[in-house]
Write a structure and sequence with these properties.
The complex is a heterodimer. By secondary structure, chain A is mostly helical. Chain A has helices at 5-8, 13-33, 39-43, 52-73, 79-86, 92-109, 113-121, 125-143, 145-152, 162-165, 170-194, and strands at 90-91, 156-158. Helix content of chain A is 72%, strand content 3%. In chain A, strands 1-2 form a two-stranded antiparallel ribbon. In chain A, helix 2 packs across helix 7 and helix 4 (52-73) runs antiparallel to helix 11 (170-194). Chain A is globular. Chain B has two domains: 1-102, no CATH class; 105-174, no CATH class. Chain B is globular. The chains are: A mainly alpha, B mainly alpha. Chains A and B meet through helix 1, helix 2, helix 3, helix 4 and helix 5 of A and helix 1, helix 2, helix 4, helix 5 and helix 6 of B.
């Protein structure tokens, strides 16, 4: 059957939520097995001690990216539905500002939202504190919404992909990203040998 | 350098990445959208605030979208249920690996209070960041990364560039 199933067929709310629960279960399980329940395993990348975050993230992105293209080739996935209805929209400047704040939060707080959940169920007190902080952050964002609400939805570029920007096909763009990932894996190894903070 | 104790016993990172990518791929195949996390906490923040001051939440420019008239409770939502699944899946993984331990993850010489204060501050800053970016490492970097969305790639690059620079200033927390 051609996917995305929920968008091409009319799934009931209950079906969608059951899928969410099962998907989330595997997501959490893999995050824990990757070592992402410990803030040290997550922040060591920034000190060139252990680049596992880069390895996991890039492998995951490449697997899903290539997998989606392969599924669309054999007719099991309708990529045009994704492009038209569910591709994440780009709000360029807000997302860059969000990226700066999120990057600070990541290295200072030691987690990102999903990994903090896995940290919490691993018994990590720091992840509990991080999650409470994150809720407070959401309140601050909501309180300040009258100030930055118009910025939040600005620089709207719509549903736009890298291959459209670079004027190429999604296959060539994906191949370029895979090559970039392989180069990053080699550099990661060199970075770990360098580990400048521990000399 | 020698592998520390807390880094032992996990999957090979490339294999873990492929497994994570397959979970993401199945999600796209089924739903047409990817994974997420921060959205569940935005909704949690709205629900807690609603318990204290419903009028504020229902008129707030951001929170009111979770409390539209006639809409189901903010927790009856894909992302919230998916994060409940993350709790469950993470817990099963921790228990079956016998890794549950009450502890604080921090650098060997960093103090517990320094670490916990910074975890709180980092949580606040990161939480605000997820709202401007409309997602986090899951909802933007993984999901938008795999579909080559422009804003997601911009977000991911900026996150890591910022964190690599800022790492120098909090090195005592992690050393």
């Amino acid at each position: 059957m051609t996917g995305p199933l929920a968008m091409l067929n009319d799934f009931s709310v209950a079906t969608n939520l059951w899928i969410a629960l099962v998907i989330g279960f595997f997501f959490g399980f893999v995050l824990e097995r990757a070592g992402f329940g410990d803030s040290r395993n997550l922040t060591n990348i920034f000190y060139f001690r252990d680049m596992r975050v880069l390895r996991v993230m890039f492998s995951a992105i490449c697997t899903a990216m290539v997998g989606l293209i392969a599924l669309s080739w054999i007719g099991l996935f309708d990529y045009s539905v994704l492009l038209e209805y569910s591709l994440l929209k780009t709000y360029l400047l807000p997302q860059i500002v969000g990226g700066v704040l999120f990057g600070l939060g990541f290295v200072i707080g030691g987690y990102c939202p999903g990994t903090a959940v896995v940290g919490l169920v691993s018994g990590k007190i720091d992840s509990l504190v991080f999650l409470v902080g994150m809720i407070v952050g959401m309140w601050i964002f909501a309180l300040g919404f009258p100030v930055w609400g118009s910025f939040y939805k600005s620089f709207d570029m719509g549903r736009i992909t890298l291959w459209q920007i670079f004027g190429t096909s999604k296959e060539i763009m994906a191949a370029a990203i895979v090559v970039m990932a392989l180069i990053a894996f080699v550099l990661a190894r060199l970075g770990e040998k360098w580990h400048p903070y521990d000399k | 350098m020698k592998e520390p104790e807390y880094a032992k016993g996990f999957w090979n990172p490339y294999l873990a990445g492929v497994a994570l990518g397959l979970v993401l791929l199945v999600t796209f195949y089924l739903m047409g959208t990817g994974l997420g996390a921060s959205g569940a906490f935005a909704r949690t923040a709205a629900v807690v605030a609603h318990g204290v001051n419903p009028q504020f939440v229902e008129t707030n420019g951001y929170f009111k979208e979770f409390y539209r008239p006639g809409a189901p409770h903010p927790f009856v939502d894909w992302i919230v249920v998916q994060v409940v699944g993350v709790f469950a899946g993470g817990l099963v993984a921790v228990i079956t690996a016998r890794r549950f331990r009450i502890s604080i993850g921090k650098g060997p010489t960093a103090g517990a209070w320094l670490r916990l204060s910074l975890a709180f501050i980092g949580g606040i800053i990161g939480g605000i960041g997820t709202r401007f970016a409309m997602g986090c490492t899951s909802g933007q970097a993984l999901t938008g990364g795999a579909t080559m969305a422009v804003g997601s790639w911009a977000f991911m690059m900026v996150v890591f560039a910022t964190a690599f620079i800022a790492a120098y200033f909090v090195r005592r927390e992690w050393s």
